[in-house]
Amino acid sequence: MSQEAYQAEKDLNSYQAKTGRGGKNISDTAQETGVDAGAENKFPGAQVRVGPGSTASGSDHRVIPPEEGGEIDDQGHSRIQEMTSLWMPQILRPDYTWPRQRPALLRVSEITPPVPHIPGRTVRLIWGFIHRGLCHFSKWYCHWFGIPFDHNIVQLPFGLLMKWTDRTNLEEVAAMQMVAAAGIPAPKFLCCGEHPNQPFNRTFSILMTRLPGITLENSDDLLQVEGEEPWLEELKTCVDAMRQWSPPEKLFTGSVLRTPILSQRVPRHIMGPFTTQEDLYDYLFSAASAHGFPSKEKFQETLVEARKIYERPHRVVFTHGDFKAHNILVDNDGHLSGFLDWESAGWYPEYWEFTTAMRFGRNSWWYQVAAWMGGDQYSQELSSDVALNLLTVDSYVGM
């Protein structure tokens, strides 16, 4: 086993041993999109594999080193890799993260951070050229260390990685800088590149720092708040503070750049901006369809339940937009070390953060986490949101 894979297994086992948690991933976003949205800070030197007989106890969780997983098929290269790990400076290795001094008590500002300046298109095009070169370099870099190359999450030395997906956008560039300025442990933004005429809508790339920690996974476990480590309260501190920030207009729904929100869970994966919640709901319901319902009566019943969302006014708050376990990193001491993937962040109705996390996997561990953080006060909104999802799912699944 390589040193990288050994360290990954050690970190994962340490966290699971302290928390008593583990088990199969029942990620809701994976069900919706087939994409692991929290991949950028998973340790690149090993894969977490869940065997066919996995249970919520995590007994079949094991870390598969690249040699066993088939990424290295040349024994000579494997031996060179082992020798290299003995003399390679830590800063050049794919598990390096920049030292961070964790405060004794996490404090997140409740004052709305300023919207950062977004580099102009000429600057973005120049960085895009450089980023494409880094992507080619990463292929060699990953081969040298015996780790899988991922063209979406590009691994680099010096504690860096580059996110380059069809969901990466300028709104994420702004949002991740805002939350970092407020004290939330998000990756540090370095630069963004633009790539016109790229296939698969991979228009933007972001160079950022790699964060330490283990990615959380959902499970069937029971949440025991008193038994959880500090990350739970620290994450609540982040969410509570964000919800105190003020939108540019009282009922504005949109990104921090006042542009449309890009989200996997809305019709055609884009919506807004809107200045009234009626406009927001009208847009969401515009994609309603009776397709998939067993009867007209069942469709009408679901429509009535979904339309109850119009009846209650809601304030607008800053929202992550994809509040799922796989977007949270926890370090070996049980502290929150990363809050990832801000591509869908923006100004939403106050219930949105929680109902997004609770629409699937009812009574799962993460469902309980979201409910404890405040989602339990939005039971009617959750019921309407679940109904709305049934009505509009054809407009975003499979796109």
Can you walk me through this structure?
- With 399 residues, the chain is of the alpha+beta class.
- It has a domain of 171 residues: Aminoglycoside 3'-phosphotransferase, Chain: A, domain 2.
- Helix content is 35%, strand content 12%.
- The protein is built from twelve helices and 13 strands.
- The strands form five sheets. It has a four-stranded antiparallel beta sheet, with helices on both faces. It has a three-stranded antiparallel beta sheet with strand order 7-11-12. A two-stranded antiparallel sheet has the order 1-2.
- Helix 9 packs across helix 12, helix 10 packs antiparallel against helix 11 and helix 10 packs across helix 12.
- The longest helix is centred in the middle third of the chain and has 25 residues.
State the CATH class of the domain at 225-395: Alpha Beta
Low-pLDDT residue spans: 1-10, 22-73
Computed Rg = 22 Å
CATH topology of the domain at 225-395: Aminoglycoside 3'-phosphotransferase, Chain: A, domain 2
Mean pLDDT: 83
CATH homologous superfamily label of the domain at 225-395:
Aminoglycoside phosphotransferase (APH), C-terminal lobe
Strand order in the largest sheet: 3-4-6-5
Helix content: 25-40%
Give the distance, in angstroms, between the N- and C-terminal Cα atoms.
40 Å
* Class of secondary structure makeup: alpha+beta
The description of the largest β-sheet is: 4 strands, antiparallel
Number of strands: 13
The helix-strand sequence is HHEEHHHEEHEEEHEEHHEEEEHHH
Named CATH architecture of the domain at 225-395: Alpha-Beta Complex
